[in-house]
User: Which sequence fits this backbone?
């Protein structure tokens, strides 16, 4: 499939979806959202892909929605933009494989929202995160208010969305928004190595962990633990458990199901 505003590549078990409007710091347009959604469908149906990386071309991950397009929006158009955007961001997070946002430069507005919808965020030193929509007269609309509050807590989410201030990578890590910060010059290589390490693990166990944490945070503890027990049982339907445990006992690397 040919794309214009993204670059989609598959290298072994790792797929990379890179936003590709570098001259506009990858500001996202409705066309780009449609292309990302198509690529996400491609990932969902290709069983050889075990990890998805999101990156940006040029000097940013993504500096938000292309605000120029907002000048054309009326209230109904704005609601349509938000709900279509939210649907695709939800679908991205619901992929059965690990999805990592690899953020360098800026992840602002929609860029920060898309990154937060991934399973976790790796940041290059110096990367900046923020929800600056308030400075333009509107609120975040791709789930940013909701995911930020869940990730860093209500008070800080309000402070960030109300002031529009940027967080530096290290501060974002301290607050739990970013999982790890890597040096800028080795950033993509570090992300790819982390993706390859994930790709070598059991596919079923990876999905179990991801689903149980995602579903569990929205339910009470007892229900969350029940979901965890069901996921644990599911892992035992595959030969991966025997392989993982035997490999440990035999002091060798495990070879999980393809
Ligand atoms: N929408 C549309 N265009 C954008 C954009 C956005 N969200 N973010 C950046 N661009 C464009 C700029 O207009 C500029 O285009 P031009 O060269 O045709 O003038 C180009 O990308 C480069 O951006 P510029 O502002 O010149 O780079 P900078 O290094 O001086 O500043 C930022 C970088 C990220 C601080 C600044 O671009 C910015 O604040 N962007 C908007 C962030 C935002 O409010 N996002 C939320 C939107 S909902």
Assistant:
């Amino acid at each position: 499939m040919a794309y214009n505003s993204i670059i989609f590549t598959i290298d072994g078990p790792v797929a990379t979806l890179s936003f590709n409007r570098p001259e506009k710091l990858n500001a996202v347009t409705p066309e780009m959202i449609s292309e990302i959604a198509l690529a996400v469908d491609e990932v969902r149906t290709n069983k050889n892909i075990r990890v998805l990386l999101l990156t940006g071309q040029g000097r940013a991950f993504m500096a938000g929605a292309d605000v120029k397009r907002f000048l054309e929006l009326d209230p109904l158009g704005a609601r349509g933009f938000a709900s279509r955007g939210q649907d695709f961001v939800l679908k991205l997070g619901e992929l059965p494989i690990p999805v990592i946002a690899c953020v360098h430069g800026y992840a602002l507005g929609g860029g920060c929202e898309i990154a937060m919808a991934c399973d976790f965020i790796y940041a290059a030193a110096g990367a900046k995160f923020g929800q600056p929509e308030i400075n333009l007269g509107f609120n975040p609309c791709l789930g940013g208010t909701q995911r930020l509050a869940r990730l860093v807590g209500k008070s800080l989410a309000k402070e960030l969305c109300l002031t529009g201030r940027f967080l530096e990578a290290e501060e974002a890590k301290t607050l739990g928004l970013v999982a790890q910060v890597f040096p800028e010059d080795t950033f993509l290589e570090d992300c790819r190595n982390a993706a390859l390490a994930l790709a070598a693990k059991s596919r079923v166990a990876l999905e179990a962990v991801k689903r149980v944490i995602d579903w569990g945070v929205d339910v009470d503890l007892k229900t969350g633990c029940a979901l965890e027990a069901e996921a644990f049982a599911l892992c035992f339907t595959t030969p991966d458990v025997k392989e993982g445990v035997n490999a440990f006992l035999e002091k060798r690397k495990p070879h999980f199901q393809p």
